Amino acid sequence: MSKIGIFVGSVYGNAQNVAEDVQTMLAANGLNAEIYKDPSLADFQAASSVIVISSTTGQGDIPPNLEFFIEDLRSAFPLMANKPFAVAGLGDSSYHESFCGAGRQIFELLTELQGKAIADFLEVDACETLEPEVEVVNWLQGLLTHLA
Hints:
The chain is of the alpha/beta class. About 40% of the residues lie in helices and about 20% in strands.
C-alpha cells in the first residue's frame, strides 16, 4: 500500500495541528499517511506522495525541525522522478518579503528535484484566517485523486 508522507515544519505547533487534521482527512478517504516532524531522506524516498506543511520563522527561514532535512535534500539531491507533491506555507503577510518564505523555498526545491507539483504553492495568511487547518484540508481534498 502506498504511503503519503506529510512533512511538517513547525515552531509553535500550528503547522503540526494542521498536519494532524490533514492526516485525519486522508485516513477518512482511505489513504495511508504518516506525519514526519524530524524526517530523514529515507522517509522522503519511501513516500509515494509528499505533502509539506510548514510555517516560516525569522526572515523567511525554514523551521529548525526541518533545517537539517532540507539541507540533506539539497546535498544529496534525490531526484523525485515525477513523484506527486503539494506544499502549504503558513505565514503572516505583515512580514512582506519573507511571508511564507520557508514554504516557497521548499516548493522550489521539490520542483528542482523533479517532483510533480499537483497544485500551486498554497499560502495561508494568519492575518486572514484563524483556522489554517480548514483552508489546508479543503485545498487537499480537491487534490485527493493526485495523491493516491
